[in-house]
Amino acid sequence: MTAPAARRPAYAPMRPAVAQVLGEAADADPALVVLGADGYGLATQVRDRHPRRYIDVGIAEANLVGVASGLARSGRPVVVGTMAPFLVRRAAEQIRNDVCNPGLNVTFLGVGGGVSYGTLGPTHHVPEDLGFFSGLPNTRVFCPTDVVDAAWAVREALAWPGPAYVRLGAREDRVVHPADREFRADGLLLAEPGEALAVATGVGVPVALDAAGLLAGHGVRLGVLALPVVKPFPAERVRELAAGLRAVAVVEEHLDSTGITQHTARALVGRWQGAFLPHAVDDSYPPLGDRAELLDHFGITAEAVAACLLASLGRRSEAR
């Protein structure tokens, strides 16, 4: 009798689900306005149903945020959606001074955070986006994993009366969550910890889950805490879950100096003893390659996480 084939993971783009959320939000709130910069993939439903409330400013990100600021000052909730690398780099001053400093109700949707644009190269890599927005006071920051928590994250961002940033995938992302998942702002414990815990966000979540599967074959139980919300960071929950464990790994598609690696280290320093194992973008510019190659380059893979944890726990590694 032949064993059943392993079920292949499903993949889906985030943009259509987000477009639906924005369409529903525009239906419910006649004041809401959506802005874009030479692209309307996030705003298809708003553009079709409420064309006077969708504005495309062209390839002019600083102007994009300036217009958003003016509309928000008039009392309108505003959504800004465009490519993450150009939003963060070309409009940094306007984001900081015109929106976040006065605490205006603007939700930023950044498509293609991290290294998800791959072979388009360093101009399109932005492994610092979460850190940039996290450094702005009173700003909420979200990093969903898949189409399901992307829709949840955008709804949560829209409900927040101040500035918020949601990192979105550029292409298709692996679906991890069931459609009826109930999310928590302080993270989802997708696997119970035994010897170790992985704190993960975005693409790091399926990597951590796969690492847990590899480690199970070695008799090691790896807990997985998925964080769709990066800021505010759930420091107390991380400390509670890490208590008594021998190792904590962090898995993220972001610079280790300003992402959840740094937040996790800060939460644990002086209060926990064990092996701290970051799997993130290090202090270097990503080389040229597709997304999978870049994640492998930085050790953001299930095999790398499992091998590192086995070594830290004193087990013989056969994960690679």
TrEMBL record:
Family affiliation: Belongs to the transketolase family.
Cross-referenced CDD domains: TPP_PYR_DXS_TK_like (cd07033)
Signal sequence annotation: none
Name of the molecule in the record: Transketolase C-terminal domain-containing protein
Cofactor section: thiamine diphosphate
Keyword annotations from UniProtKB, A to Z: Thiamine pyrophosphate
Superkingdom classification of source: Bacteria
SUPFAM superfamilies (UniProt xref): Thiamin diphosphate-binding fold (THDP-binding), TK C-terminal domain-like
Organism: Streptantibioticus silvisoli
